[in-house]
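Researcher: Sequence of ATP phosphoribosyltransferase regulatory subunit follows. Predict its structure.
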Amino acid sequence: MKNELIIRRLKFAQDYTQLLADENYQLVDMNMVEPFNIDDKRHHSSTIIFEKNEQLFSIRSDWTRSLLNYNENYTLDDRFFGYFGPVVRNYETFHQAGVELYSPSNEEVFSSIDMHLSFVTERYDEKFQSIVVNDDTLLDLYIEKYGLEDDIRTLVHEKNLSEIKKRLGGSHSLYTLLTAKVSDQIDLVNAEFGDSDIMRFIEELKQLLEKYDMKFILDLSFRSPQSYYNGFYFQAFLNHDYPLLSGGEYNSSAFGIAVNLSNGGLL
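Model: Prediction complete. Tokens:
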């Protein structure tokens, strides 16, 4: 690894954690070795597990799960946490930074997303090209409104348009939505479910982020690779193949944002 990359990463860690401290996030620095929790293996199949004195332990593969496990075992007074440090997946070490918000309001979620975007654009003079958002409850609304079979969900996630057309017909509202330009999906969903809580949330976020002049894309087939996310989810991209920022709702009342320092294009 080149010296310049190491120095940039360390500088990022200092600037980012100082930002979080200034914004009243509680910084955490947890041990990479932690008691094994079966949920960790279920959510992260690459988690490395070993035994010591008849006790199972794992090497941290994800900060969100580690903090969630810690928060469930101990009653914490703080609600906002920030971190920077390594995780190990598939025997490779990655450095990850991010925040976890417990029981946040919509305004607090918006503020945290805005904080991350402005930190990158102002501190690093980078421009975000696009942000992709979704919430699985939107697909639930379509399934409920049109009385669809639940396996339609899998077809949507797999982008199996031919089978969806075969099952629903080419004029069905859901098929029309999925075959439209992705940039037009938000208008089509608004036409049917604009009065739902999640679409009001997405529209408010869209208006907040207009100042960043990036594409705002709602994609109903978009899903997080982490199975514990169960609500709103987003990824924000620089001019790069992989997202720099990823985040969303999990555990019904928590929200996390992670910064991808490995291949997100920042360092």
